[in-house]
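pipeline/complex-builder :: batch 7 item 3
reading input block
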Amino acid sequence: MHEYEARLLDFLTKRGQASMDEMERGTGMGRDKLVWALESLAEKGAVSVKRERIIEAKVTKEASGYRDEFPEEALVRRISSAGRMRISSINDQIALGWAKRNGWIRVDSGSVTLTEAGKKATSGAGYAQRSALCSLIKGEDPSSVMAKAKDAWTTLIKRNLIEVKEATAITDATPTKVGIDMHAGAPAAGVGELTREMISSGSWRKQKFREYDVNAQTESAYPARLHPVREFTNRIRQKWFEMGFIEVEGPIIESAFWNFDALFSPQDHPTREMQDTFYLSNPKQLSIDDVELIGRVKKMHLEGWKEGWSEQLARSPVLRTHTTSVSARYMKKLAKAAESSYPAKLFSIGSVFRNEATDYKHLAELRQYDGIIVGDNLTMANLIQTLKSFYARLGLDDVKLAPSYFPFTEPSLGFFYYDEKRDDIIELCGGGIIRKEITKAMGLNKTVLAWGGGVDRLLLNDKIFGVGALPELYKNDIAWLRSRGGIKV
Amino acid sequence: MAIISFDTKDLQAANGGKRGLTDVITDMGVEIEEATKQEIKVNIDPNRPDLLDFTGMHRAIANFTGKKKPQDNRYKISNAPAMTITVQAAVKKVRPYIAGIVVKNADLTGQKLKYFINFTEKFSDTYGRKRKKLAIGVHSIAAINGSLTYTAEGSGSITPLGLGKPMRFDKLMKEHIKGITYQDAVPTFGKSYLYPLLKDDSKTIALIPVTNCEETKVTENTKELFIDITSTSDVALGNAAAVIACSFIDSGADVYPVEIAYGKAKKATPTLEYREIKLSMSTAERTLGVATGRHNIISLANRMGHTAAKYGSSVLFYVPPYRVDVLNEQDIIEDIAIAYGYNNIEPIAILGTSSGMSNDSADSDNRIALTMVGLGYTEAINSLLTSEEVSFTKMGWKPLKESYVSIADSKTSAITMLRQSLLPGLLQNIAASANATMPQRLFEVGKTFHVKAGKPIEGKGIAFVSVHSKANFAEIKSAVEALFKQTGTDYRIEEHRDAAFMQGRCARVVSKGRQAALFGEVHPETISNFRIEEPVVAAEISLDDL
């Protein structure tokens, strides 16, 4: 016997009949565990239980916004204050449909006016759908709401404003003789479980097995899962592999040299502050051992920006603000590559950091994918094709381009998509052609197409995952990790 | 980068095309933060300071939409210098560069004064590094007596803008809002300030870069202006002067140079020079991957404010002085692309095939993560950023300052260092999961950070925790051994003491002569510090040697 069963049986034999609430208080077990123990004991014939059918109703996200006003109510209120409205000026088709169905409006040659019923609806007279919904939100028993307002109930279900489930639930339990004996240590009478002995001896042939209630509630099981960010990162990696890219990586603690200076970001200029940077107090300095490279980068700054350049500043350690630092390191490495390795296509994915205030689309740490294509005769048209193809693989077909600015690319561009749910334009990535000054300093006599974009913010997109806000991803609440939806691409 | 706002109707007046104003601004590459019927807020990238200025933005929209075509040599000044500034040696070491501009027939009515002041403030804040590198002052010429001297002194007084009476400099630095705000921008000599000053024959007209004097204050009705720009950088100075002078020329005012006298050497400011950049047709087309045609390139360049002419098989571009961002032909090609329209570029696939390849370290992370899932552990991913409070204090561990990576200037107290262990994060996750059904089993694979002999070390580890009423040493030992057996590494288990674990219920794994893992029953003190209410067993394994 499981410890939960023993605890429950102990309580019931002392107490006799008990309701669910009494059992919960008496045993100190949570509702889930209690139901599981009860069902298990009932199967063994140790308790007899009373069941009733219950209705559970869940108010959907959409509906919780309708608590004060349904869209059709908002519409008639607008029509009422305007007198009449052009039908073409009404965007909310749902509101229009229901106002019509309720007989609140009449449409006459493209012009919408209120009927008598519509005027009544604006006077604040109760709207049956809304009062039923509010009762549910307040916690009223769904069966009584259903009985009171049958029509509204059916409509709410049809409109997907509530989700209804029927179930049977135990209301109370009484220990049987079997249970009392079990508790006293006597062997269980009757046959509940098939045993190893029954199988080997063949005695099961003579047994009569009790039949179970297949709808009885059982304890929930939770499969262990990978984190959605890992799952999605692996999908992104897969897309780059499919497109012929090689995965690389680089350090998170980076010198200002590789994070900024090698990428032509001037030392005393607002460009450095395009992302707020975390500087470190330990370690204090990083070494850059390639003296020749330092010389070439210094020359690039002095010639390009015509202001001073300090090697000391370049040695400051920072938490990398973009994975472009990895791309910079690989541009240097590729300078020594054989001609046959071009065009070289590389990508990296990793954490980057911003010392800034956080909100639903900004975190201090986020994940980025960065890529470069290095070769001859590469064009903006090639870059656009590569990225459009990548986003199409993520189900984002309608991406838009706009000019952008980065100190290390020229021309520079941004890829965007419009997030309907949030009514916000979300930047997917920035990119461009790496400035010749940089490739020259790296000793690379090639054209480099480059880009970098956020991993996390793609998870905001409903077509991909649809997390409400980025901080939710990293709270690691087990209940959420167990019940979250899947990655859809 | 720098957000600035303009009245919508003022900008609308520049729009000569059929596309809506916000679409035009986006096409130009300027990010819109917010747009209403009254106001447009834009975010100006650091490469285009000319767009922080209303006249500059107006001009860019008018050029882009074809309402106005750029003219050759529009920004050449032929007027003789209207004023002289004598520079004294005292400023040489602290803020050596100064430029002056005289403007006559200025029109600052309506919103124009506000726009210009907003521009000078934003410019001095960003490019001027909060005025330390560069600052701009605007004066009414009528209130300037005689000739100007640029010098630096250790004391003096000024009637600061907005105040009726003079104030001593030292008092102003301590008590006046501007003095307090720009303390760091005023140079020091030894322990005291050395104030850069602009003086006329009777008074100090500017305490640079803090405040101007009240007497030379500019109003909407001021027609004749003197503008001073001071800087520690000759390049930044020239750029600011060019942007301002071009702006006043385009607003219809008359711009006069100012002569700067360094002893006997004399120089006139601003120097408004067109840069000539030659670009061959094939370079532009090869970069963009589109055939534009030479004639078309010229009209595209016009829309970006450049004038251009055919030059053999190339095109010669004349870059106006206010376009301080244009360094060479790459920047011209970008301008052509912007005018052509990025969304009009037909995508072209790169020819040839190549094969993708994954990184070993990412692959091994995935393998170990799947093993943990097989053992019934759910994955967590935590930030690498954490605090001493979580990493040490709550665990019962003692921080060794020189051994972990600490952050210099964070904006929040929850972020002060990079994690050196994965366990604290998982314990925080358990505390946040109080409502989830037991048993709770979590793991994380990821990077940890240390500093050794002044060098950062990025390591990799795995940690896992199991939380429920029956969680015990045996459970966690089984899981740890399962992982070591799977990797095929030799190991032995030893008794260990650690403040985060219960004495006698803590062990370490030694492999290849080094401590490779730590596990056991978490100490009730640590459990309580994280506000967890159930027994916890935990393990952390270094993956660097496995």
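note: Chain B has four domains: 2-64, 83-269, 275-344, 360-542.
queue -> next item
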